[in-house]
Amino acid sequence: MIPFVNMRRSLLFLLLLSLLFGSASAKPIRVLFLGHESEHHNSNKFYPMLAKGLGRDAIYFDYVTTVEGALGDAAYLNKFDALLLYANHGKITPGQWKNLKGYVEGGGGFVPVHCASWCFGNEPGFDQLVGGRFASHKTGTFTAKVVDSKHPAMAGVKEFEAWDETYKHRNHNKKDRQVLMVREVAEKGDNITEPEPWTWVRTQGKGRVFYTASGHDERVWKQPAFHQLLKAGILWSVGDARKQSYEKFIAGRAPLKYEKRDNIPNYEKRSEPLPYQFPLSAKDSMDYTQAPVGFRLELFASEPDVINPIGLAWDERGRLWVAETVDYPNEMTPNRVGNDKIKILEDTDGDGKCDKVTVFAEGLNIPTSLTFSRGGVIVAHVPDFLFLKDTDGDDKADVREVLNTGWGTGDTHAGPSNLRYGFDNWIWGTVGYSGYRGEVGGKKLGFGSGVFRIKPDGSQLEFMHQFNNNTWGLGFNSSGDVFGSTANNNPSFFCGIPATAYGSGKRGMSARMIATDRSFHPITPNIRQVDAFNNYTAGAGQTVATSAGFPESYREKVAFISGPTGHLLGKYHLSRAGSGYKAKNGYAFLASADEWFSPVAAEVGPDGNLWVADWYNFIIQHNPTPSLARAGYDAKRGKGNAHINPNRDRGHGRIYRVVWDKAPEAKIKSLAGASDAELVAAMDSDNLFWRQTAQRLLV
């Protein structure tokens, strides 16, 4: 009897382990895409097409363009389920080859595409791994023929016609290889005399290789049938167990549900407007959202604790303060009293989630930013800047003063935002085309669409950098350099010369757009924009990675720009260019197939991690107001100059934290009550947030 009981216990234990580990591995497929910096076989252009095509299927790509970046670190490579190679890289080092070969033979999937069969000519073993090597080509329009439709790597694959290069191969390795598609002899003068192996699979060690010769340019890469071919190949290459765990993940996540509704603008002039997607819970939304391998997305707060978060700031205790606005964009009140709040969100038990919410101030009407100064909080609340302060320690504002007035009220998405404490002990911020018209210190001022600074007591105001349209982004690096972004197709500016340097009444260039590429890169085709399609048309924020909570390759070198209309948070790589900077498009840092995911702000927090405010709303567009000719129906304009839309949501909002796997523990948790000596010591922090907080408290 006892052996039977022990056997039952053992079986139950094994079942429990199976459930635990099976659940842990049920997750999206992660593919490392190795491309190159070339317009020939333009992987920079084609990778986003594939990411968009397969993103809703939870097949996520991380993209690199150097062999060392993909194959130099075996530990990094082994974090991926598969490696996709589409590039013209001529050589591979012995160490890189060792890592690639070891990765595949250890069970990793390998998906060489098209020109990949030309790569690494200095390593004979590479041809054998792929199963053949490119020899020559002509060009033509043709349909590769499926010859083994029952192979699992052909699941859902249909033949498709496309213009492509007509590859012919040599150095064929037929060992453990199975041909799935062939290119048949087309006509006289073809470079083949018998059917040419076109798509094949092979095994090596514990790993699987899927190769296709398709893919010269966008005439192939834009086709859904090609996406399906690569999807089937990727899922076969990762192995049966990993595929099964992926399928378990897909079956277990909440489905996206839709219905046809009125009042969905169709500026893109699709054959019909996109349907309305129903919202997801925060947990379910995360199942549709991609962060880079090596980072993890964590939820800090969601509705009902926070709704429509528009601005984030932390006090010297490390507590998060949030400006939330359910009145945005059109519920402007004449007396400026509304339904909006400033909240304090705290994690009191250290589990990384908000468990205490305190309303610091209420009755506000569309606050657009906040920052700390003089023992209180400055809030942008057009036409005024308010100074709010708690004097009795109950975390409730009992002082409310007007610090400054004159900010434009004509358009709620063109007012002041991005308030932050500057290195010069002024408060810096941005303003859009609603602008400023007022008097400060007896001096009349008028400006708009750019960067300003204001004394903490409101006694002085200066316009610092002129941008060319609605300005929504501002950030500093640790050297004090100033960067910004605009809503309309200018995702990154460098503010090189302050406008004040030109003297009274004179003007000169004070900022320049430095982004080398304006495009953004979603992982769903369901994107709704009003213009400049597929580019940053709602670029918000410009936060530089200024802490040790990021990899070395990020620190002071990467800026994060929100792209809510693309359901993403993008990144740009900053590098010196003469006396200024250039910003190279680094694709999406976060991206979601959930059409409600709408990052509007990202900030480096006191823990050194990146925090993201997700407005979480299906309707993001403000203006122009839809018309029958332009967007498919006639809408009306509201008091905030935004189109009135019953599909705008006022019940959701999320705040996430993106954590690097190797991020060190924050050395400072709080500076509340710190002595002058402790504040001076904090000026050596590896996090710019604490250095600036210490400076603010010292002065």
UniProtKB/TrEMBL annotation:
SUPFAM superfamilies listed in its UniProt record: Class I glutamine amidotransferase-like (SSF52317), Soluble quinoprotein glucose dehydrogenase (SSF50952)
Domain ThuA-like: 30-236
Coiled-coil region(s): none
Positions of the DUF7133 domain: 282-659
InterPro entries named in the record: 6-blade_b-propeller_TolB-like, Class_I_gatase-like, DUF7133, Membrane-bound_put_N, Quinoprot_gluc/sorb_DH_b-prop, ThuA-like
One Pfam entry name: ThuA
Protein name: Uncharacterized protein
Lineage of the species this protein comes from: unclassified sequences, metagenomes, ecological metagenomes
